[in-house]
Specification:
Elements (H helix, E strand, L loop, with lengths): L2 H17 L6 H8 L4 H7 L2 H27 L6 H17 L2 H9 L4 H20 L4 H17 L6 H20 L9 H9 L9 H17 L6 H8 L3 H7 L3 H17 L11 H12 L6 H14 L5 H9 L6 H7 L4 H16 L1 H4 L6 H20 L3
Helix pairs in contact: 1-2, 1-4, 1-6, 4-6, 4-7, 5-6, 5-8, 5-9, 7-8, 8-9, 8-19, 9-10, 9-19, 10-17, 11-12, 11-14, 12-13, 14-16, 14-17, 15-21, 16-17, 18-19, 19-21
Length: 390
């Protein structure tokens, strides 16, 4: 690769990580590389080819990073406990020391390069599971857990508290999905949820919830850049003053959009009501898992989170997105299964995260639909069988 090509690829990768695809233009890349914009066509055939090359190089760098990481992971206990420890340690390292690569990985989602990159992680977690005496399904569960938290640990809202919450989540995941030692419930997830304001469904008054629903629709259609008080007012059929009464700042509005998406997710359950039996709860979970693709709210929530990660003024809104997971399933989980309230916060959070990660975790499989069905069975039934019905 020539020096100008290398400079352009490096610049494109940096901007993709810093801004996301919507913020990357030929002019911006050329300015970052200190070259003329015409150099992009001359050296790499156009902006899209340049961005694809940047993702390819990122995938190669990730493979090298994993090759350095794997011998360190191999020093952990070769047990289910060691697998849970590996999950926590790798997530922290990937989103910390390799943060730019971790952000670039998120931008690769849905591309051919992204599928190959996902395959690298799938193979890594399969080897980790095998070394720890676990099977292929456990390797895929580890990969699904990684796909979820490798995204959400990018949050910069409260690093110490969020690291503590990650430990709690990995502990419960290890215990209920891998058969590791009982995970401690420290209260970190509950504190993070309360501190971020990621309240469960039903906490907003009806007028505010209608506006939050409208905000979620605006984001789904126009992205975060299109989310304004005026746009939401027009969608909701109310005045701009009514919107600002409930959501004073854009950060508040983003948080409201997330709650609107949580509300939308809850309303697509069969019958639209809380399950009355353990079997009904399981059926409701499988209803989501068997869809051909993630729901619009799930996709929008991911996009909103990545936008919030890149804007310090939206850090709290990003935390709302992260810790809203599980809010719609928690009450049913605690009511129908042998789990206490504080543990329910964590278990419902892990369950919701794993379900959201089904599609990305299976993207590189030969038959993604079949792979998703097998993984969904383990994601849903394992913890509930271990907890037991009331």
């Amino acid at each position: 690769m020539s020096d100008p090509s290398r400079r352009l690829v490096t610049a494109a990768a940096r901007l993709l990580a810093d801004r996301g695809r919507p913020g990357v233009s030929a002019r911006a890349v050329a300015a970052e590389a200190r070259l003329a914009a015409s150099a992009i066509n001359y050296n790499l055939g156009g902006l899209e080819q340049l961005l694809s090359t940047a993702l390819e190089v990122g995938c190669e760098e990730a493979a090298a990073w994993l090759a350095r990481c794997e011998p360190q992971v191999a020093r952990l206990p070769a047990t289910p406990d060691g697998a849970a420890l590996a999950l926590e340690a790798v997530i922290l390292a990937w989103t910390g020391e390799a943060r730019d690569l971790a952000l670039l990985y998120q931008e690769a989602a849905g591309t051919e390069v992204g599928a190959r990159w996902t395959g690298l992680w799938a193979d890594f977690w399969a080897r980790t599971a095998e070394r720890c005496g676990l099977g292929a399904v456990e390797g895929r569960l580890l990969h699904a857990a990684f796909e979820s938290e490798a995204l959400f640990q990018l949050s910069g809202w409260s690093p110490v508290l969020e690291a503590a919450a990650l430990r709690e989540l990995c502990g419960q995941f290890g215990a209920l999905w891998l058969g590791a030692s009982p995970g401690l419930v420290t209260g970190a997830c509950r504190i993070a949820e309360e501190g971020a304001g990621a309240r469960p469904e039903g906490s907003l008054a009806a007028p505010a919830l209608r506006i939050a629903d409208a905000a979620a629709e605006v984001v789904a259609e126009k992205g975060l850049a299109g989310l304004t008080h005026r746009a939401v007012a027009m969608r909701a059929g109310v005045t701009t003053g009514a919107v600002t009464h409930h959501f004073r700042t854009i950060e508040d509005l983003v948080a409201g959009a997330i709650r609107g998406q949580v509300s939308a997710l809850s309303r697509v359950t069969p019958g639209g009501q809380a399950p009355a039996t353990p079997d009904g709860f399981v059926d409701a979970l499988f209803f989501h898992a068997r869809a051909d693709r993630p729901s619009i709210p799930v996709l929008s929530r991911r996009g909103l989170f990545l936008a919030a990660v890149r804007r310090p003024d939206l850090a709290r809104a990003g935390a709302v997105i992260r810790f809203a997971h599980g809010g719609t399933t928690r009450d049913s989980l605690v009511r129908l299964f042998r789990v206490e309230a504080d543990q329910g916060v964590v278990v419902a959070g892990v369950l919701a995260r794993l379900l959201s990660a089904l599609w990305s975790a299976c993207a590189g499989q030969a038959d993604p639909a079949e792979a998703r069905a097998i993984l969904a069975e383990a994601v849903i039934r394992r913890p509930l069988d271990r907890l037991g019905a009331r």
